[in-house]
Every structure is written in C-alpha cells, then in structure tokens.
Inverse folding.
C-alpha cells in the first residue's frame, strides 16, 4: 500500500447496462483526510459509482484504487479499512441494534468483548440505547440510518463511503451524525458521500465533484468553484445545464 496515495482514485471508469452507460469514463481522485461530496441530478450515476467503490457492482471497464489497493485484487484489504452506509440500509431485521453492531464488529475480527463493548457504546452515542430490546425490523427509517452509521464506525475505518446517510433522519440525529463525521475527518479519516441536500454538502464538504449523465463535469475545492457570491446550488444548476423556471401556471 502506498501511504501517500489518494483515498480514492478511479480512472476511466465505466458501467454499462444494456446499451446505456450509467457511468461513462469517470476519472476522479479524492485526497486522504478530506470531506468530499459527490453530487449529481437523479440518474446521473452517483449510486452506481458508490456501488462500484464498495465492490457491490463490477465495472464494465476502468480502474479503481482505494487507499492504495486496487479493486478487485485488494478487496479484502480494502473492506477491512472502509466503513459503508449504502442508500438502502441492508440490516438484519431479526437482530436488535446491539446484536447487529456486535455481529459487524466480529466480522471485522474484533475480539468478542471489544465488539460487545463498542456496540454498547455506539448504541448510547447514537441515542439508540432506549430501544435496546427492539428488533431492527421495528426501527423507523431514521433509526435504521443511525444503526447503519454506527456499524460503519465500529472498526475505526480510514475511509467512509456513504450514500444519502442523512435521509430520513430527524434534525437532532442528523446534527449529531454530521458532528461525528467531522470528528472522524479531524482524526485523519476520509468521508466520501452523496446527498441531495446541497446545503448539507456545502456546510460539510471541503471538496465536491458533480457528475451529469455519468460523466464528471466539475471537481475541486468548494472555495475555488464559487464565482462571486455563488452558492453550491447555483454551481450545481449552472454546471448540469438546468434552467431556473420562473413561469407559473395560470390556475396555480
């Protein structure tokens, strides 16, 4: 592993379904120790890209390197060092939150006492200890997101890959989760996330990449991308070619 390598490096990445390219020649480098937003309109290829980075989808062509390890050759080394929060939280619904966290910790080869202790601490940190007897199948969407993020942290990963991690989470829970992720970046971890809430990305991320129709259209530091008093929403609308609709319907 090259210690000075980027957290994520993808080169000419493509994923084709039938005759449609969901991701079309994407090249991107994400430095270590940064909070990086990955944006795009619906259907732009964000989730497909995240799935390829997670090893859940096989690229049609191109190269992926995570923390200096190539995919798929270094898959086991990579998975030991990343924390995942997919768009669809795939949790074991017949376990309690604590049981699931302990299971995840054991999958990462933590000794059982360590996995149990960290599970207990994470349940308290994510304010889920009041539901300690509930099965995950009884959790709300926001609670499921909380336990998914807790599971992503139990082994102290170097890189977090997160697809809409705050979706369905109430304001208090989202604030707590954002603070936790910022703290992880301060200790040297990298966070790579997608979100449709541009205000969240603007507040959290140092760098952003925007894709449109499977292709990268802009990438860089947030401050450098702004023109004058532009917001991230202004940048997004400008680079994906959308227009502001000022017309109104007579009857509306």
């Amino acid at each position: 592993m090259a210690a000075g390598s980027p957290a994520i490096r993808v080169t000419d990445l493509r994923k084709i379904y039938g005759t449609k390219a969901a991701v079309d020649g994407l090249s991107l480098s994400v430095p270590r120790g940064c909070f990086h937003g990955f944006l795009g309109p619906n259907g732009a290829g964000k989730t497909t890209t995240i799935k390829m980075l997670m090893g859940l989808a096989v690229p049609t062509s191109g190269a992926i390197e995570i923390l200096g390890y190539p995919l798929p050759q270094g898959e086991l080394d990579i998975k030991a060092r990343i924390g995942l929060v997919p768009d669809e939280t795939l949790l074991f619904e017949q376990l309690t939150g604590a049981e699931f966290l302990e299971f995840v910790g054991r999958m990462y080869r933590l000794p059982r006492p360590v996995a149990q202790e960290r599970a207990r601490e994470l349940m308290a940190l994510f304010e889920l200890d009041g539901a300690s007897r509930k099965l995950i199948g009884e959790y709300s969407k926001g609670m499921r997101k909380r336990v998914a993020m807790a599971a992503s942290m139990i082994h102290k990963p170097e890189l977090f890959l997160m697809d809409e991690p705050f979706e369905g989470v109430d304001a208090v829970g989202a604030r707590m989760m954002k603070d936790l992720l910022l703290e992880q970046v301060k200790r040297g971890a990298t966070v790579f996330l997608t979100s449709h809430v541009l205000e969240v990305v603007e507040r959290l991320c140092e760098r952003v990449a925007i894709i449109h129709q499977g292709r990268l259209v802009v990438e860089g530091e947030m401050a450098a991308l702004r023109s004058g008093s532009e917001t991230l929403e202004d940048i997004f609308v400008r680079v994906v070619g959308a227009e502001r609709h000022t017309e109104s319907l007579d009857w509306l």
Remarks:
- Residues 171-186 form the longest helix (16 residues).
- The two ends are 60 Å apart (CA to CA).
- Residues 55 and 72 are 8 Å apart (CA to CA).
- The chain is about 35% helix and 25% strand.
